[in-house]
Amino acid sequence: MGRPVIHFEIGCRDRARTGEFFSKLFDWQIQASGPASTINTGSAKGISGHITSLGHEPQNYTMFYVEVDDVQAYLAKVTELGGKTLVGPVKIPAGTFAWFSDPDGNMIGLMKPA
């Protein structure tokens, strides 16, 4: 069975400016929510997302998250296939996430919902 893409994230230096840009560009509803800003695309299609400013590298990035049932097991598989763990696993209220890079250096997120 395939694994769904369940979330996206936009990293930036200035959340307010980036939120205003995407709000005006795509008519998205952007709302501050703790250390991130949630994105409501206003559409029944697609997935939810958020904007965040980490305060450290990487400053600017886009990320999509794939839902998995065992984050650590998938990170082990990433390594076996020539990729690299970048972050995690990290437990958050919504579940557990990690970031990895594929053999070409693209960053992808893994997420096991709570």
Summed up:
The chain has 114 residues and is of the alpha+beta class. The protein is built from two helices and eight strands; from the N terminus they run E-H-E-E-E-E-H-E-E-E.
Our count of helices gives 2
Helix content bin = 10-25%
- Beta-strand fraction estimate: over 45%
Overall 3D geometry? globular
Task: Profile the largest sheet.
Answer: 8 strands, mixed
Q: What is the number of E strands?
A: 8
**What Rg, in angstroms, do the CA atoms define?**
15 Å
User: What is the level-2 CATH architecture name of the largest domain?
Assistant: Roll
* Topology as a string of helices (H) and strands (E): EHEEEEHEEE
Number of domains: 2
Class from helix and strand fractions: alpha+beta
What is the CATH fold-level name of the largest domain? 2,3-Dihydroxybiphenyl 1,2-Dioxygenase, domain 1
Q: Biggest sheet, strands in spatial order?
A: 2-3-4-1-5-8-7-6
| Level-1 CATH class name of the largest domain | Alpha Beta
In CATH terms, the superfamily of the largest domain is 2,3-Dihydroxybiphenyl 1,2-Dioxygenase, domain 1
Low-confidence stretches: none
The termini sit apart by 20 Å
The average pLDDT value, as a whole number, equals 92
